[in-house]
Amino acid sequence: MSLTGRLLTVLFLLSLPLQVLGWDWQTKVTVVVQHQSLQTVCELLEKNYGIHFSYSRDLVNLSRKVTVTVHNQRLKTVLEDLFAPDNIKFTRVGDLLVLLPDNRTTRTINGYVKDAATGERLPGATIWSPTLKQGTVTNQYGFFSFTTTKDTSSVVVSFIGYQPQWQQFPQNDRTIEISLESTTHLKEVVVSGTEGNNLQNQTQMSKVNISSAAVNKTPRLLGDADLIRTLQAIPGVSGGMDGVSGLHVRGGSPDQNLILLDGSPIFNFSHFFGIFSLINPDVVKSTDLYKGAFPARFGGRLSSVVDITLKDGDMKNYHGDAAIGLISTKFDLEGPIIKDKTSFIVSARRSYPDLVYNSLIRLEDDEKNEADLSAYFYDINAKVNHIFSPKDRLYLSFYTGEDKMNLHLDSTSIPDTAKINMISSGFDVSWGNTIGALRWNHIYGPRLFSNISLNYSTYSFSTQIGYKYILPAANELIDQVGTYRSRMEIAGVRADFDYRPSPDHGVRFGTAVNIHDFKPSMSTFADKTGSVTPLDTMANGPQNTAAEMLLYIEDEWQLTPSFFVNVGIHASGFLVSGKLYHSLQPRLGLRYMLPKNWAFKAAYTQMNQYIHLLSNYGTSLPTDIWVPATDRVAPMSSRQVALGIAKTSNRQVYEFTLEGYYKNMHNMIELRDPMGFITPDLLRWEDQVSVGRGWSYGGEVMVAKKKGNTTGWIGYTLSWSTRRFADINGGKIFPYKYDHRHDVEVVFNQVLSKNWDFSASWRFTTGSPMTLPVASYEGIETGSPWDPVSGPGNSIDRYGNRYNYRTENSHRLDIGINWTKQRPKWSRTWNFSVINVYNHKNPFYYYVKRDDEAKQRYLSKVVILPILPSVTYSVKF
Asked: Which positions fall inside the TonB-dependent receptor plug domain (predicted)?
């Protein structure tokens, strides 16, 4: 280069602003912009002063518009004023100015997740931040509160059966509503970052969520989808005899299950002699089953909690469905009363009387009697919800249902040994539930949510027996009618609060007061014999009113990135007949993350139950009687420990759980009489029972496929359930009637095409223990028409050990296929199901049959579910 060129280069460098050759925090800068983004300001500083900015667009948001007018100000002062409102911190690394989010500053976003088409709020939806690896879930009412760093601008929101989506958070703290589209109307799109749905990210163990879609996919008994039969296909849950819709959870009895319908307890959960469950699954929004590890907010039962939430009703459009099957018909309708503000849903079911029931029961009976049997059930659900403001919503829900059966027998043949001539007899029985709930949701702030509820529930049972017969000796017509009724009511108020102080903490607390009214025995007897003045008598058993109080608090807390804990306490008291029982029930759940995203879980639970159920052995009718704890029979209590591992595959296709549990129980009751029949003298029911202990332990494994055209699960349970009573079975431990050693469940669903889908379920259950006599002696011939077992010529049975016989194993294959045709505004579906495909004769009920000629008695069984095809036609609009 020539001398002139070198001189020109030096002069050019000297003419440049000195600040582009280097900068420090004291560098004086001048910036004048009008309503420009922070990114534009950074670009000006880089151009004019050589300050190179480095930052991640995912963590630092520079889109905010600013107006700046500064002249010869210190660089550090200018940067502090620019970035402070957005909680952006800055530091110098070499010649770079690095921008970072200030993670010490947080904000709280709260709101609801709802169905985009109907406005229905979605409980259990997941809000997940892939960047922070943190998230939360919506509560039972679809509410969430997520406290996160200021820089978090978007999260993934997901819910089973709905399209996951990215949700942008607003800049300020406020209540928002997030709408999700149902996957039934959209093609599947995979959204990454939905780890919040994984089993290993849930501290709660022994919990299963049952969706309405899963219930409707299972094969249908007599054309009806059934929630309880779906629950019975879960490992650790058994239904006992074939066709019974009761729940035996981890060796517990049906009365040890707390079944809640919109927060109100249900005391009998079956229709049609246990074949159908109480609730129409078409109006159910969500069902959570807790087999153990109960959160502190639940109490009052020992074995399980079934928390059922009904749909709220469509806020935008009217629609419904109707179905007709072989034994029942049903319909439901929902829609807005005031669009986007008030909605309703109503449903009704009714079975057809005297068409199917006689043909289902298979009894071998040589008596030539003509019987008229009529049996049916009905139920009605209704719910209204109203939005007062973004922070206030009111729900009103109602249920009523009843079963009725009438048996009228005209006798045409009477044994020669009879001392009477029977003309006719009649038997009427009815039972039902009525439930109501009024709930108010309120948001106090971005972190605090409350639900205040008033609940009412009643269960009643009534039976009437009438006889007309002639006494030959007096040639006198006798006409007698006896009626027996029992009733159980509960009314209460409850307040639940959900507080989310930070992503590491989720605190729930609340209180409740419930009033119980027990009327277990109300009976009347009338002798309407024509030759004498009619005799009417009335006898009332014990009637008790009791008050139950509870207070709870629970906290789910992330101690380290890998260690989570849910700790709580449930305090309760029960005041009855001047005696106060009280208890403190600790609850503890632990989760530790193992390598490769496996989660180890452990739980300890203590539960108390203040009410007992007196059950009549040997009958499938709901003649059970609820009574409170007394000064002689204390409340039942249990302690359960559970350990397990869980994992969801990376793409959330497969789930695996393995759990083991051990539960001991105190103050269990058992009838001293092996026949187990409660006498009408309930004033002395404590004298008829023995109080003892129980144990239940075992293991459960389940592998499920959750996504794709092929879904379902395989489950296996190995379990033991035993009892010991001082004055029964010689004080020795014996297997209890809910002891099922092996239980296998296989559920399979396959989408065949756009219009066709197929489902199948197979279950194997080890037989149950039952008590049989070891000897029989002929007794005095009473000739009493009131004896439903032996009639004239009673025998006296002698019993040995309790539950000395185990029934045969039960297994059954059910299949179903659906054909659906979708129209623009409506759809129609044909369902074809076959129950017990290979016609295995599973027992529903055992009885001892007597052969007078051979002088023998032998065990016989009643089978109510042979191979049974059904067809149902339904329309949705």
From this structure: 223-301
pLDDT band at 16 (very low <50, low <70, confident <90, very high): very low
Share the mean pLDDT of the chain. Answer: 80
Domain assignment present for residue 163? The answer is: yes
pLDDT at 325: 81
Q: Is 196 helix (H, G, I), strand (E, B) or coil?
A: helix
Contact between residue 527 and residue 551 where contact means Cβ atoms under 8 Å apart: no
How many CA atoms does the CB half-sphere of 649 hold within 13 Å? 10
In the listed set 101, 129, 164, which residue is the last one of a domain according to the structure? 101
Cα→Cα distances 345→122, 381, 397, 402, 750, Å:
16, 8, 9, 20, 31
Distances (CA, A) of 117 to 156, 445, 759, 827: 19, 27, 28, 17
Identify the residue with better confidence: 1 or 203. 203
At 132, the amino acid letter reads L
The answer to whether residues 718 and 803 belong to one domain is yes
How far is it, in rounded angstroms, from Cα 816 to Cα 750?
Answer: 11
Q: Is 590 found in the same domain as 564?
A: yes
Please, which pLDDT band fits residue 176 given cuts at 50, 70 and 90?
Answer: confident
| Residue 702 pLDDT > 50 | yes
Distance CA 161, CA 524 (A): 54
SS3 content of the chain, % helix, strand, coil (to 5): 10, 55, 35
Choosing from 101, 132, 154, the residue where a domain stops is 101
Give the model's confidence band at 15: pLDDT under 50 very low, under 70 low, under 90 confident, else very high.
Answer: very low
For residue 635, list its beta bridge partners: none
Cα distance between residue 493 and residue 456, in whole Å = 9
Q: What is the pLDDT of residues 235-269, one digit of tens each?
A: 888 876 655 556 888 888 888 899 999 999 988 88
Determine contact, residues 672/688, Cβ cutoff 8 Å: yes
> Is 869 found in the same domain as 728?
yes
One DSSP character per residue, 142-189 reads SEEEEEEETT--EEEEE-TTB--EEEEPPSS--EEEEEE-BTTSS---
Query: Which pTM value belongs to this model?
Result: 0.80
Which distant-in-sequence residues (6+ apart) come within 8 Å of 785 by Cβ? 420, 422, 425, 467, 469, 791
Question: pLDDT tens across 423-476, in order?
Answer: 556 677 888 899 999 999 999 988 899 999 999 999 988 887 776 666 666 566
Please tell me whether residues 181 and 163 are part of one structural domain.
yes
Q: What is the CATH number of the domain that holds 136?
A: 2.60.40.1120
pLDDT in tens, 783-808: 333 343 344 445 666 667 788 788 88
Whichever domain contains 87, its CATH number is 3.55.50.30
What digits encode the pLDDT tens for the residues 368-398?
445 566 778 889 999 999 999 888 999 999 9
92 lies in the same domain as 119: no
d(CA 372, CA 454): 43
CA angle 41, 45, 51 (to 5 degrees): 130
Give the whole-number percent of the chain exceeding pLDDT 70. Answer: 77
Nearest by Cα to 206 from 619, 764, 657: 657
- Give the C-alpha separation, 343 to 340, whole Å: 8
CA dist., res. 708 & res. 696, Å (int): 37
Alpha-carbon distances, residue 525 vs 316, 486, 531, 540, 849 (angstroms): 56, 15, 17, 12, 30
CATH number, domain of 490, equals: 2.40.170.20
Number of neighbouring beta carbons within 10 Å of residue 404: 16
Whether residues 31 and 155 share a domain: the answer is no
Greatest mean pLDDT range, 181-185, 260-264, 525-529: 260-264
Closest CA to 581 of 541, 620, 608: 608
What is the Cα–Cα distance from 132 to 155, expressed in whole angstroms? 10
Total count of domains within the chain: 3
**Which domain covers residue 59, as residue numbers?**
17-101
* Same domain, yes or no: 81 and 133: no
